[in-house]
Write a structure and sequence with these properties.
It is a single chain. By secondary structure, the chain is mainly β. It is built from no helices and 11 strands. The strands form 2 sheets. Strands 2, 4, 5, 6, 9, 10 and 11 form a 7-stranded mixed beta sheet that branches. A 4-stranded antiparallel beta sheet has the order 1-3-8-7, with no helix packed on it. Strand 4 and strand 5 form a beta hairpin. It is globular and about 40 Å long. The N and C termini lie far apart (36 Å).
């Protein structure tokens, strides 16, 4: 599956931003989708994921501020980011799980398709 993220940019502390990830190439609705991020000098961090039943999990650092949603008719998954902080600065990637009809996962190894990433920068 091909994934293309959009919506990143430069915002200020406390602002909101919504990322989109458009998928093509396979049956979108059958697969769990996730968002990960990677800050300079750090490893890839789990942000959020949802599956075909709308089961959702969030990373501890974004719980209550970020919200994942998906529109299966548009083959698109979204990440609404509220109350952004400078420590949220990172490249954000969307990813698709490799198996159909399995739940969301926090482990990046469970995802076999990745987008190119979109930069989010939060200034203080």
């Amino acid at each position: 599956v091909q994934l293309v993220e959009s919506g990143g940019g430069l915002v200020q502390d406390g602002d909101s931003l919504k990322l989109s990830c458009a998928a093509s190439g396979r049956t979108f609705g059958a697969y769990a989708m996730g968002w990960f991020r990677q800050a300079p000098g750090k490893g890839r961090e789990f942000v959020a994921a949802s599956d075909w039943r709308d089961t959702i999990v969030y990373g501890d650092t974004v719980q209550g501020r970020f919200f994942i949603s998906r529109d299966n008719a548009k083959d698109t998954v979204y990440l609404q980011m509220n109350s952004l902080k400078p420590e949220d600065t990172a490249v954000y990637y969307c990813a698709a799980r490799s198996l159909k009809y399995v739940g969301p996962s926090r482990d990046s190894e469970d995802y076999d398709s990745w987008g190119q990433g979109t930069q989010v920068t939060v200034s203080s």
